[in-house]
Amino acid sequence: MNKTDSTYEERQEWRQRCILSNDSFMMGLPKIELHVHIEGTMSADLRWRLSVRNGISLTAGSDKTPLSSLEEVREAYKHIRGRIGAAAADAKTNMTFYEAYYGGFDLLQTEGDYYDLAMGYFERASQMQVRYCEPFFDPQGHTRRGIPSDVMMRGFKRAQDEAESRLKARTMIKSQWIMCILRDLSPESAMAQYEAMLLYKSMVVGIGLDSDEFQQPPSLFQAVFKRARADGFKLTTHCDFNQKNTHEHILQVAKSLGGNGAERIDHGMNAADHPELMQIIREKGIGMTICPCAYIRHTSEYEVFPRIRKLFDAGIQVTIASDDSAYMEDNWIFHNLYLVREKCEFTNGDLISLQRNAVSICWTDRETKIAILDELATFEKNGYSS
Ligand code: ADE
Ligand code: ZN
């Protein structure tokens, strides 16, 4: 750990302060979420419920320490630390990020399980005034376990439809899915999954790329991205913070993925160190989804917040998002926004601009965009922009 890294306790103290502040601007701000992995929203409570329901026992760490109660699962969630793809502080007894993330996949068996996962997220998002979201899902992580696509997609669809109608009374929550390709599997597997997913085309707006980036550049998946672009999908790709060859990966995504570059980049924060990349991203109007709570779990805040500020000040269409909230110290879009306001010294007006950026780079219809922009304008007019 660098001496400038925050400790878990410091981050928790800060998080408590943010929750207890009851900040009416932050709570009322209409929000758009463009970077959330649905599988990364599995709370400790849902993990426990699914394990009981499906008769699957839970463990943590390479020692396979049994988790035998809800309390133990909650405690285990507090010890998921470090960079995505790296070992936990003590990987013998603690879960690594990927152990927590892919271990959660194994618990999802029935349509009802997928419904519960997605509905849990939509409920939570609605409480945070999220009006529209584009959650990622990783179908290869489910179909490779023998789960039929139909089981997964029916569960997601039921939750999505219900969220839109049932939660509408409180807030409008619309959504469209982004199907992510697992970059640690082969390009052939990606293409096969893509073709299978065409049956559900009406639910899916975009194609993304996630999982372990090490030695897996976006260009490996050019064939499937070109095909997806030709079929009318929007494109995005993870370029994780401080990854090896990150500038090369960002350049591929910005300039050539799908033929002439993707519409968005997920993370991609190291672009801030590279004026030429910043210029390409700005000139092409590429959106960037930035998830600060994910980075400060393993990186000094001095490495994180000045870069976000720099991208924003350069006029790049940055938006703030949450990534894998359940496995990232329970930080959701609300906490991420709260954090950047304090640490990047953003005004409330800047936070409204960040939401306008999200409207601009999201992939919903014109009518929904106008409705959210109108709501943001009213919110601002009512004195919430100072
Ligand atoms: N899978 C789930 N979350 C991810 C992330 N932030 N980066 C890469 N792969 C992921
Ligand atoms: Zn992500």
Major beta-sheet overview: 7 strands, parallel
Q: What small molecules does this complex bind?
A: adenine, zinc ion
Q: Please state the CA-atom Rg, rounded to the nearest Å.
A: 20 Å
**Largest beta sheet: what is the strand line-up?**
5-7-8-9-10-11-12
Helix amount: 40-55%
Range of strand content: 5-15%
Please state the overall shape, judged from the principal axes of the Cα atoms.
globular
GO molecular function: adenine deaminase activity; metal ion binding
Cofactor: Zn(2+)
Keywords: Hydrolase, Metal-binding
Domain Adenosine deaminase: 30-378
Describe the structure.
GO terms for molecular function: adenine deaminase activity; metal ion binding. One of its GO terms (biological process) is adenine catabolic process. This is Adenosine deaminase domain-containing protein. By secondary structure, the protein is α/β, with parallel strands linked by helices. The protein is built from 17 helices and 12 strands. The protein has helices spanning 8-20, 24-28, 44-54, 70-77, 97-105, 111-127, 140-143, 149-166, 187-197, 222-230, 246-255, 275-284, 292-295, 301-313, 333-343, 348-361, 366-384; strands at residues 31-33, 58-60, 65-67, 130-133, 136-137, 174-175, 177-182, 204-210, 234-239, 264-267, 287-290, 317-320. A 7-stranded parallel sheet has the order 5-7-8-9-10-11-12. Strands 1-4-6 form a 3-stranded parallel sheet. The radius of gyration is 20 Å and the shape is globular. The model has no long low-confidence stretch (mean pLDDT 94).
Keywords:
Adenosine deaminase domain-containing protein, adenine deaminase activity, Metal_Hydrolase, seven-stranded parallel β-sheet, binds adenine, 17 helices, binds zinc ion, metal ion binding, 48% helix, metal-binding
